[in-house]
Design brief:
UDP-n-acetylglucosamine1-carboxyvinyl-transferase, Chain, binds shikimate-3-phosphate
């Protein structure tokens, strides 16, 4: 069925999540494999690549910049690296769709090229803040024009040279850190980035796996420009951010017992496990192996009775993408859950505090949205009609809420689920969720 832009999920209550499930490849790692493989020397083979719209936007952008990329086919991509100086002008604007990671990481990579580039995206991406990357890149000598509001379109102009900087990030952002490290590959001297809180370190790990010297010391990452990357094999683990919906669904639905296989367990991403466990979730981790610098394991989750908690501030950046799912767990917990220090949620694919608060209220839950977080009082979810506002993670979070609601949950604005998890409906249905898709256009 061809699906329009207003795809609706309808979830009927009841059931449990059981069996085994392998969610698709990690989005963050898939982006980075394409970018680094493109500017490496030699062939990079990526296995487990996420064939979602966001990672595909990065892949298509690199093709437009002259890189030969075969696939994806069954999650396998082969990239013929062109070396650090081998990219060519795209000749047209690069459309990055809904993908903030593509836009911010490409800003860094393209800042050091000898040609002009233009970056655009969909309505959500064109609203998202880009000064957080363009300002520090300008300090390195880059010339990037934004709109007056500091948003895309981004015009990236060639400059005679970039210079390494020592930069303390005002927000804990892996996208900003990665953009600066990618620009740093093209800069003279050292680029050093300090982070105010721990953020995902996939860029650092993958640079090292490609043979680049990167020095990481507590909250500081440092590299020297002018080196070379060597292509190789990248095995992408299953995305813990996609697994998170199943961790929550199986925790709240009585009788659930579900094993998620081959999940990436990078400690900068596992905040969702820690937060759910503090709420009383029953999650067992069986660590397996380290795939190209990224730890992997199986997670088994069983239904449990959850308690509201005050979410510790240091776990916020480690679970930043998982809050829509965590809010559903909070809505099903006994007592109050309080989140603070999470103002970043307001500038994700949607304003995740406002959109989640509206949806939870529509399902009968008492919420108090706050500038930097939310207070949620657990209770009985009713059926109802909620708006995902084109935000993939909000759509999937409310789908899991349908397991325990007292009536059907209808979710509008779900087409963007394809950005990170195109197989969501099939995998959720196979695990036990009663979900169907309607074209509400
Ligand atoms: C990402 C970093 C995070 C995250 C995003 C992916 C990445 O954003 O929310 O979904 O791949 O680097 P910030 O760096 O803006 O926190």
């Amino acid at each position: 069925m061809a699906l329009g832009n207003n795809r609706r999920f309808v979830v009927n209550p009841g059931g449990a999540l059981t069996g085994q499930c392998q969610v698709p490849g990690d989005k963050s790692i898939s982006h980075r494999a394409i970018l680094l493989g493109a500017i490496a020397t030699g062939i990079t083979r990526v296995e487990g690549f996420l064939q979602g719209d966001d990672a595909m936007a990065t892949l298509q952008a690199m093709r437009s910049l002259g890189v030969v990329i075969r696939g994806p086919s069954d999650g396998v991509v082969e990239i013929e690296g062109v070396g650090p100086q081998g990219l060519r002008p795209a000749g047209a604007a690069l459309d990055l769709g809904n993908s903030g990671t593509s836009m911010r990481l490409l800003s860094g990579l393209l800042a050091g090229q000898a040609f002009v580039s233009e970056l655009v995206g969909d309505a959500s991406l064109m609203r998202r803040p880009m000064r957080r990357v363009t300002e520090p890149l300008a300090r390195m000598g880059a010339h990037i024009d934004t709109s007056a509001a500091g948003t895309a379109p981004l015009q990236i102009h060639p400059v005679s040279r970039l210079e390494g900087i020592d930069y303390a990030m005002p927000v804990a952002s892996a996208q900003v850190k990665s953009a600066l490290l990618l620009a740093g590959l093209y800069a003279e001297g050292q680029t050093r980035v300090h982070e105010p809180g721990v953020t995902r370190d996939h860029t650092e790990r993958m640079l090292k796996a490609f043979g680049y010297r990167v020095v990481c010391d507590k909250a500081t990452v440092q590299l020297t420009g002018g080196g070379e990357l060597t292509g190789g094999l990248v095995r992408v683990p299953a995305d813990i951010s996609s697994a998170a919906f199943f961790l929550v669904g199986a925790s709240i639905a009585t009788g659930s017992a579900l094993t998620l296989t081959g999940v990436g367990l990078n400690p900068t991403r596992t905040g969702v496990i820690d937060i759910l466990r503090r709420m009383g979730a029953d999650i067992t981790v069986e660590a397996q192996s380290d795939g190209a610098g990224e730890p992997i394991g199986n997670l088994t989750v069983r239904a449990a009775s959850l308690q509201g908690i005050h979410i510790p501030a240091d776990l916020v950046p480690l679970a930043i993408d998982e809050f829509p799912a965590i809010f559903i767990a909070a809505a099903c917990a006994q007592g109050e859950t309080i989140l603070q220090g999470a103002e970043e949620l307001r500038v994700k694919e949607s304003d995740r505090i406002a959109v989640m608060a509206d949806g939870l209220s529509a399902l009968g839950i008492e919420v108090e949205p706050r500038p930097d977080g939310i207070r949620i009082r657990g209770g009985q979810l009713t059926g109802g009609h909620v708006q995902a506002q084109g935000d993939h993670r909000i759509a999937m979070a409310f789908a899991m809420a349908g397991l325990v609601a007292s009536g059907p949950v209808r979710i509008d604005g779900c087409a963007e689920v394809d950005t990170s998890f195109p197989e969501f409906v099939e995998l959720a249905a196979a695990a036990g969720l009663t979900i169907r898709i309607e074209d509400a256009a």
